[in-house]
Amino acid sequence: MEQLDRTNDAVELCGEIVGKPELSHTARDGEYFKFPLAIERLSGTLDIVNVVVSRQMMESLEVEPLPRLRVLGEVRSFNNRSGSGPRLVITVLAKHMEFTDDGYANSVLITGSLCKDPNLRRTPMGREICDMMIAVNRPYGRSDYLPCIAWGSLAREAACWHVGDQVKLSGRLQSRTYIKLLDGQAVEKTAYEISISALSLMEGV
């Protein structure tokens, strides 16, 4: 993965744009837009990740007749207090974009601290899974809170960690749909999490 400014939070995605950019928010440095990027797994399942990009970067992107868009950036979280939509919004803030004919890519590297006790459980099929919430520091005292999951032996290892432990993780940013009952109606929702492929505890930090 190419080196980015934040060595504790780096993402590389390569996939297809599957929706038009829409205004996400306005900040002091200008407008930001959001669009969905589809990345195919080896299994054929699609992860649909929302990418946020500044107007300046979007307008300066050179349009090429190539099938996929490569994005380098950072995972960001936002606590949605509007009362509609998910409470924790997960996106990727683009730092670099280019069109490419490279294959699909979905790679995340983060370093942060465990901010909730790990939750080790079993799926209905009997697989062990551990849910975690990792706080990743940004500059200027802010943090992103990123849900992560580990499976099998990695899940058992992570279950032994404690709140405040400093950890390093790699994996992919995945989307997962589920059904939630709202006012008696079944509504399809989408959750985002980092599916861990490797992890380590940072001793002495």
Task: Give a brief outline of the structure.
The protein is built from 2 helices and 12 strands; from the N terminus they run E-E-E-E-H-E-E-E-E-E-E-H-E-E. The protein is mainly β.
Summarize the structure in words.
The chain has 205 residues and is mainly beta. Helix content is 6%, strand content 62%. Strands 1, 2, 3, 4, 5, 6, 7, 8, 9, 10, 11 and 12 form a twelve-stranded mixed β-sheet that branches. Strand 9 (128-137) and strand 10 form a beta hairpin. The protein starts with 8 loop residues before the first strand and ends with a strand. The mean pLDDT is 91.
Features:
mainly beta; OB fold (Dihydrolipoamide Acetyltransferase, E2P); twelve-stranded mixed sheet; 2 helices; 12 strands; globular
Find the CATH topology of the largest domain: OB fold (Dihydrolipoamide Acetyltransferase, E2P)
Main beta sheet = 12 strands, mixed
Helix and strand pattern: EEEEHEEEEEEHEE
Strand tally: 12
Q: Estimate the global geometry from the Cα principal axes.
A: globular
Low-confidence segments, ≥5 residues, pLDDT <50? none
Gyration radius (Cα, Å) is 17 Å
Distance between the termini: 25 Å
Strand content: over 45%
What is the number of helical segments per DSSP (H or I, 4+ residues)? 2
Mean of residue pLDDT values: 91
What class do helices, strands and sheet pairing give?
mainly beta
